[in-house]
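User: I'm designing a mutation panel for Aminoacyl carrier protein 2 and want to avoid disrupting the core. Could you give me a predicted structure to guide residue selection? Please restate the sequence first so the numbering is unambiguous.

Assistant: Good idea. Sequence first, for numbering, then the predicted structure tokens:
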Amino acid sequence: MHNTAINVQNRVLSVVRSVLQQNAISADVHPESRLVDIGLSSMGMVELMLKVEAEFDLILPQFEITPENFRSVKAMERMILNQLGSGSG
């Protein structure tokens, strides 16, 4: 895996763990973990989206804010790498 992707994945994992902790959810999170399955609510997802934007200094385009893109750390990683690579945001 490329260093940038590893860095993005680690940062996303950190943000996800922070949101889970703030929502009193204790879970072992892996890149493929389905966040809804480990207990993240829709409000938690909104919080996660905002924290991801802040962490990566991005404004996600509306079309990227989908359940599929926030399904797992891996899905968010792909979306973020795409945004960083496209120079948008």
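For picking mutation sites, this is relevant: The chain is about 55% helix and 0% strand. The mean pLDDT is 91.
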